[in-house]
Amino acid sequence: LTGPGCFFPPRLIVRLQIQSTPSIMADQLSPEEKFTLITRNLQEVLGEEKLKQVLQERELKVYWGTATTGKPHVAYFVPMSKIADFLRAGCEVTVLFADLHAYLDNMKAPWELLELRVKYYEQVIKAMLESIGVPLQKLRFIKGTDFQLSREYTLDVYRLSSMVTEHDAKKAGAEVVKQVEHPLLSGLLYPGLQALDEEYLQVDAQFGGVDQRKIFTLAEKYLPSLGYAKRAHLMNPMVPGLTGAKMSSSEEESKIDLLDSKEDVKKKLKKAFCEPRNIQNNGVLSFVKHVLFPLRGEFCIKRDPKWGGDKVYTGFEEVEKDFAEEMIHPGDLKASVEAALNQLLDPIRKKFESPELRKLTNSAYPDPSKTKAGGKGAKTGGGGGEDGELVPSRLDIRVGKVISVEKHPDADSLYLEKIDVGEPEPRTVVSGLVAYVSQEDLQDRMVLVLCNLKPQKMRGIESQAMLLCASVEGEPRKVEPLDPPEGSSPGERVFVEGYESEKPDEKLNPKKKVWEKLQVDLKISDECVGQWKDKKLLTKLGHITCKTLKGGNIS
């Protein structure tokens, strides 16, 4: 992400004492040694010569930003360990709590929760840094909205908007901004704001994951057009989650929360993908490489003496080699990572035992299953009415059966379907599936249908519902209709776990964008199960699934 502006309000600048002093201080390092420390374990560096030039003259100014969306998880130790390298190399480091970005990214953080989530992030990231004992004299914290709403910044947003094409903005955010079928304008603004932050922070370099490379190259392309200097960019590799895919705050099974109990850590690691000899997309091995070795310089495999006893490794390559050759058993690797991880998490858990931080956690991340439609501020009538809570029970999703399917008479890319949704007459549905699903595969198929959208004419024929599919963007784009459980009947209601008792709206008001706002959190898990914010989509017979599109969106 990106960082704060050209000034630092005193109330937001945090200076902490060193918890543990490294044996070699920054002023004892040569510029070449500092460069090596700054760039070690990175996947890519853009602007190496600029970094070397600055280091010959003065200390480097770097910033790392994080959008205050879902709860930080253990993968955050990866950038934290790299920030430790920056600080030990004498860099001046700024941490940006990018609250405005969190809102712009398809409203991953509701406006009313932004302030609470910034406070939570500040507390938990400080606790992480304290737990790994990094030097903190040159570390500063700042909140995005404290400078991104200024007159000067806003004018630069407009100036940049007059230069950046829609294509470039969409491409830049493709791997960072949540991708949906009907993207909001806010998602197109996001990459430009991140680019501008480099200037308003007055830094030499921005640090982030390699998934942000396209945003970094957009910054390099357009900041000089505004008369601002091109910055260097430091990129960490993307660390796999426990399921083998990217570790994500929104994928419960893929990550370990910083406040998870020891029992939860054991349970999640036990289920983690760690196939014998497989060193690709192995989240457990990656954690050893990118967190434990940089922080500790060694790693101990603990095992029964009859299997060789404990062994201390001083380099990751040897660990990887032994795992690939089955000299390390996955169970021993998981148990050893569990012990090391709990040592990192214990100080964080202890800090968050205080009543104040427990209250902050619950306020910043309220349990969605306890949010009831029809509560305060909601009108009567199913699902919370026009001004009700934004909960998934407002969607009237039903099981349907495709009775007939034919090509739209006036559009080659559209199908015209008749779908039985448990009403006296089947509904007419127009869907753009010609390029993805054959007529034979749709005929007589059980599907999922969103039934309370406002009917809309598509090339002259009114579509009375929407056939729901999983999709994965790419070349080529892949689309699959969602599957209800075996034995389902037309008209059976689909609900989100925890929202079974609420009634859907009779009709969704298109002006309120209820479907669009809820849809951004509908996705497919790595087990091919439909979810909304980690809560499963169900009927009375079981889970909603798709055949192959793990991690896809639902639309």
UniProtKB/TrEMBL annotation:
UniProt KW tRNA processing keyword: no
Protein name from the UniProt record: Tyrosine--tRNA ligase
Source species, domain of life: Eukaryota
Gene3D superfamilies reported for this sequence: HUPs (3.40.50.620), Nucleic acid-binding proteins (2.40.50.140), Tyrosyl-Transfer RNA Synthetase (1.10.240.10)
Secretion signal, residue range per the UniProt entry: none
Domain TRNA-binding: 391-495
Gly residues compositional bias, start-end: 374-385
UniProt keyword terms in alphabetical order: Aminoacyl-tRNA synthetase, ATP-binding, Cytoplasm, Ligase, Nucleotide-binding, Nucleus, Protein biosynthesis, RNA-binding, tRNA-binding
Assigned protein family: Belongs to the class-I aminoacyl-tRNA synthetase family.
E.C. number: 6.1.1.1
Residue ranges, annotated region (Disordered): 357-391
Subcellular location(s) of the protein: Cytoplasm; Nucleus
Catalytic reaction list: tRNA(Tyr) + L-tyrosine + ATP = L-tyrosyl-tRNA(Tyr) + AMP + diphosphate + H(+)
GO molecular function: ligase activity
